[in-house]
Automatic annotation (TrEMBL):
Domain GFO/IDH/MocA-like oxidoreductase as annotated: residue spans: 206-319
SUPFAM superfamilies cross-referenced by the UniProt entry: Glyceraldehyde-3-phosphate dehydrogenase-like, C-terminal domain (SSF55347), NAD(P)-binding Rossmann-fold domains (SSF51735)
The keyword Coiled coil appears for this protein: no
The organism of origin for this protein: Scrofimicrobium canadense
Protein name as catalogued: Gfo/Idh/MocA family oxidoreductase
Residue ranges constituting the Gfo/Idh/MocA-like oxidoreductase N-terminal domain according to the UniProt record: 76-194
GO molecular function: nucleotide binding; oxidoreductase activity
Family designation: Belongs to the Gfo/Idh/MocA family.
Gene3D superfamilies hit by this protein: Dihydrodipicolinate Reductase, domain 2, NAD(P)-binding Rossmann-like Domain
Keyword annotations: Oxidoreductase
Length: 399
């Protein structure tokens, strides 16, 4: 482990609360309607939190779209570009939680691979190529899990065809390309969503509510880290031409979380460790609008321990959010403050299921989503800024 990784672990560990097994009080979701910024699409779908010494975040079947909803009987049909490893987790499996969402088509660079993928996941149509999926009258939403350097190209093609889009993160290769996509989406009037699934999980909103309500007092400092060892240099995440790098693949999550919680951030410094322009470790240090010190860390260095953790220290306590990228994988929110302790567990539907529910609601009702193209523009510009400050070039779309 590098010196920066050791420093990161030590800094983060020093903020952890020392005790968590204390009773707390939990309010119903309906009370959150009075708080600014609470997303109504989630509020309308959630049940109340329970009272318990260690309380899970309880969800009801209201979280799931029901095709029996007479106002929105439309089935949202998804076509997939590529037999990508992430597709079952992000779309195919969580789509089964929703009676009004179907995965109907797939294409891949090799047809035999697409056929095997379709057979494995019970997808009814295998089409000849990506453009055929986009052009299909049976497809309402195009899901794009290609390498990041191709996201913009295929998103623009889908928008031009009048299709809604669910695009994997990072949204595009850079901020300039993201602006082009956002402009096209506005002009065509379609829903374009970055698949930042974590932001749709109730645990993120519970953390935001706790901070806004002053549960740990005035925020002094915050740190978010997402490290995953990726030792295989043949992995596309080590390929700069395909949009690789720790920040693009991993760091986009803590960056999004910190911006979600604290709004626009002023970058003070950034540094990266790289091989041939591919950042395998990067950190950024910011000041929030309220003057708090905010930092993000990310690494895909071999030997790195896998961790996804947010720690926020305030004048009245500490907030810790574990497994913030995949809350359904053991996520918890722990608040150790002057007013006592709260420990909330993530249970129920996955972040991916929540994301698809929001997507379907927007497609059916003509609404918007929190992680739309315009939000992604801001994220991509923030990524570009980090790269430049660290002495690296922002990524470019694949020609």
């Amino acid at each position: 482990m590098t010196d920066s990784a050791q420093s990161r672990a030590a800094t983060l560990g020093s903020w952890l609360p020392t005790a968590i097994n204390v009773q707390g009080t939990y309010w119903g979701f309906l009370r959150l309607a009075t708080l600014p910024g609470w997303p109504h699409f989630l509020l309308a779908r959630a049940s109340s939190l329970c009272r318990a010494p260690r309380a899970p975040l309880v969800e009801s079947s209201m979280l799931m779209h029901e095709s029996a909803n007479k106002e929105n009987p439309m089935t949202v049909r998804i076509g997939i570009l590529g037999a990508a490893n992430i597709a079952p987790t992000a779309v195919i499996v969580p789509a089964k939680d929703h009676q009004d969402i179907e995965v109907v088509a797939v294409a891949a660079r090799q047809r035999d691979r697409a056929e095997a993928f379709a057979t494995e996941h019970s997808i009814p149509q295998v089409l000849d190529d990506y453009q055929a999926v986009i052009d299909s009258p049976d497809v309402d939403v195009v899901y794009i899990p290609t390498p990041a350097a191709l996201h913009g190209r295929w998103t623009l093609k889908a928008i031009k065809a009048g299709k809604h889009v669910l695009c994997e993160k990072p949204f595009t290769a850079n901020g300039e390309e993201a602006e082009e996509v956002a402009q096209a989406a506005r002009h065509r009037g379609v829903v374009v969503m970055e698949a930042m699934h974590s932001q749709y999980h109730p645990l993120w909103h519970e953390a935001l509510t706790a901070l806004r309500s002053g549960e740990i007092g005035t925020v002094l400092e915050a740190s978010a880290v997402f490290d995953v060892p990726i030792p295989d240099r043949g992995d596309i995440r080590w390929n700069p031409q395909l949009g690789g790098g720790a920040l693009m693949d991993l760091g986009v999550y803590p960056l999004t979380l910190l911006r979600y919680l604290f709004g626009d951030l002023d970058l003070i410094s950034a540094k990266a460790e790289d091989i041939d322009g591919v950042d395998y470790s990067l950190e950024g240090h910011y000041k929030s609008g309220a003057g708090a010190d905010v930092a993000l860390f990310t690494s895909m260095e071999e030997g790195t321990s896998e961790v996804q953790r947010l720690v926020v220290r305030g004048t009245g306590g500490t907030l810790t959010l574990d497994h913030f990228v995949h809350p359904q994988g053991g996520g918890s929110l722990v608040i150790d403050g002057d007013g006592g302790h709260r420990d909330v567990l993530a249970e129920g539907a996955s972040s991916y299921s929540h994301m698809l529910g929001a997507l379907a609601a927007a497609v059916q009702g003509g609404g918007t989503v929190p992680t739309d193209a315009q939000a992604a523009v801001q994220t991509m510009h923030a990524i570009d800024e980090l790269y430049r400050e660290a002495g690296l070039e922002p990524r470019r779309p694949l020609a």
